[in-house]
Amino acid sequence: MNTENYISKYCQIENNTVFVNGEKLFELKDVGFSEFIKNAYKEFEIEYPKFFKMDNLSKLAFVTSEIILKDVCEKDQENDIAIVFANQSSSLDTDVKYQNSIQDKENYFPSPAVFVYTLPNICVGEISIKHQLKSENAFFVFENFNTKFITNYANQLIKSRKAESVLCGWVEFYQEKYKSFVYLVSKDGLLFHNEKNINTLYNK
Amino acid sequence: MSKNCYIIQTNCVTPLGFDVNSNFEAMLNGDSGIQCHKNSPLLGSSFYAATIDSTQLDVAFSKVECNAEFSRLEKMLILSLQPIISKQKVTPKSVFILSTTKGNITALENKEYPIEGTYLSVLAKKIALYFGFTTEPIVVSNACVSGVLAVAVANRMIQAGVYEEAFLVAGDEVSEFVLSGFNSFQAMSENPCKPYDKDRNGVTLGEATAAVYISSDESKIGKGSIKILGDGSVNDANHISGPSRTGEGLYRSISSALKEAYINPHQIDYLSAHGTATLYNDEMEAIAFSRLGLQNVPINSYKGFFGHTLGASGLLETVFAIECANRNQLIASKGYNENGVSQNINIIHKNAKKEITYFLKTASGFGGCNTAVVFEKIK
Amino acid sequence: MESLKVELKAKIIEVLNLEDISVEDINDNDPLFGEGLGLDSIDALELIVLLDKNYGIKLTDPKDGKAIFQSVETMAAFIAANRKK
User: What is its main location (chain C) (predicted)?
Assistant: First the structure.
């Protein structure tokens, strides 16, 4: 039995630029993140009104994942794709926004629509809902992208037959400082799924 | 050949006591850590919550550490893990796993405080450094399933051969942040929560920490050791804040865990469920359990004793489920009087003796996440 | 009443982040939930905050929301009768 897994597709978003399989496919300089990500959403012809209700971390994770999944997920059938994401700041960007809504007792209006995004795994839920991925999922927090952990965790999910393929990623967002790197690990693909290749792609 | 993982030691810090034994005795006695908080600065109106007395915490903490440079949550985490570390040796093959949803979120209230202080990775590093871990700490932050997912993560990473043993600690605090949030969701119960009861009307929040030591070294197995047989953590893919009406993600999580464990539903002797006491969560669980044929298995929720302790709950409740198995004791589900879910499930209404070999722990949370782990008591 | 309805539509669009929908697109009697604007349970909770923040109306039982949030028409009527600011 072939125990080797491959990286079949990858997407990166940082500095207002979208790279797909290493190729720059979209760029919009000199605008803030909200403007940029909305334009990226349109550029890649994503149609999903719920996108506009998401917080920034979810928007980033969603668009990066959507670019990969839109051609991979088969409509009207089960897609056994696990999602394993991690970042450094958890949901801190939205945590700060929520804290500001309760800080001033004279102007105290906690918003449920903001509060729900004060958990980092909500972005994983958003992606799962879009593609009906009733599959394995987890969210981790590390100081830096922990290639060793994520690689082993993804391999173990496939080896133990808990998932056919795994969408892995680093999705970091805090106050306009952001970086996403999402890749699909499966039984066939472009590159061997190992720490060295992932580090090379991540640091590109 | 994959390795087997065993839970060798457990501990916890809750409003009912600072070790497993005192907590268990309190539960047998029917005590609850939930109290009414009037005129609290944390919320405009009075509310019920299970909180730890800060003075008692400081007294207990001063016995293990004289350095006071720790936050309240950090003290709770250290107190939980310390008795375990004192009996085990941390090696380069040991990993430290922290489960939390909000960590030191209370630090956000002070705008002068550096923002890095609220990073979960900084909190994990601080605790890991304190106990001398050399490997990079792992933080599991997956809403309300975090605590039980941490057990699955340890099991998986040890099986993958990355580590030989794992020290898990889970914790969350009652804060203005989470109280106001659950309140804005209109999800807070006006009275102490009543999981699965017909009069249930919401969550009561709580705070606690719990710790377990997991090892693949069979020479460490002793009296009270528990084998981890299987796990699953599957998303509902339904709604970010509401559970699936059919319990699909929970159903699949349990199925996945049972399949890996080679166990049939009828072999399960006891089920420690999530039971937050919201209308939809408890109903969803009941449907998932019935679909699996688990309706006759004795089930309880510990939320009536400790409230919902968020990222701590899954691990805290695993610790109590283990204690139930080791004592062959079922604990009545606090707050439950009359069935309030559509399925005829077997909620434990009275403390009772029962031989427990195989047991199941489940949890579900925001983002549509669910986790299940199957355990076996070593005889 | 007409100006309240227009104001309300603008506020709903703003707080619920309804993209590509303008005040003119929402009819007074359009259902807000289900088929209409397709709002969900979190939106309903957010509308409760909207009532509190802008009109000083506190809804403590979310079940009351069902009748009030049927349409802009029913919301405006409720606000006009109960507003504190």
Answer: membrane
pLDDT in tens, A175-184: 999 999 999 9
Token pair listed for B154? 């340890």
What ipTM, to 2 d.p.? 0.97
| Rounded Cα distance, C19 and A39, in Å | 13
Which residues 102-121 of chain A have a CB within 8 Å of chain C?
109-113, 116
Do the chains contact at B242 and C62, CB–CB below 8 Å?
no
What domains are there in chain A, each with its CATH number? 6-203 (3.40.47.10)
Q: What are phi and psi of B335, to 5 degrees?
A: 95, -10
Structure confidence by residue, pLDDT tens digits, B225-235: 999 999 999 99
Q: Are B225 and B6 in contact (CB under 8 A)?
A: yes
C53 touches chain A (CB under 8 A): yes
User: Exposed, middle or buried: residue A164 (CB in 10 Å: 0-12, 13-18, 19+)?
Assistant: middle
B237 with B210, same domain: the answer is no
Instruction: Express each pLDDT in B54-85 by its tens digit.
Output: 999 999 999 999 887 899 999 999 999 999 99
Whether residues B232 and B283 share a domain: the answer is: yes
**Least CB–CB distance from A134: residue in B101, B181, B249:** B249
The domain of B144 spans 5-220
Distance of CA C49 to the CA centre of its chain: 10
For residue B121, give the nearest of A83, A141, A152 by CB distance.
A141
> Closest by alpha carbon to B333, among B302, B310, B292?
B302
Name every residue whose Cβ is closer than 8 Å to that of residue A85 and which is 6 or more positions away in sequence.
Answer: A61, A120, A121, A123, A124, A138, A139, A140, A168, A169, A170, A171, A182
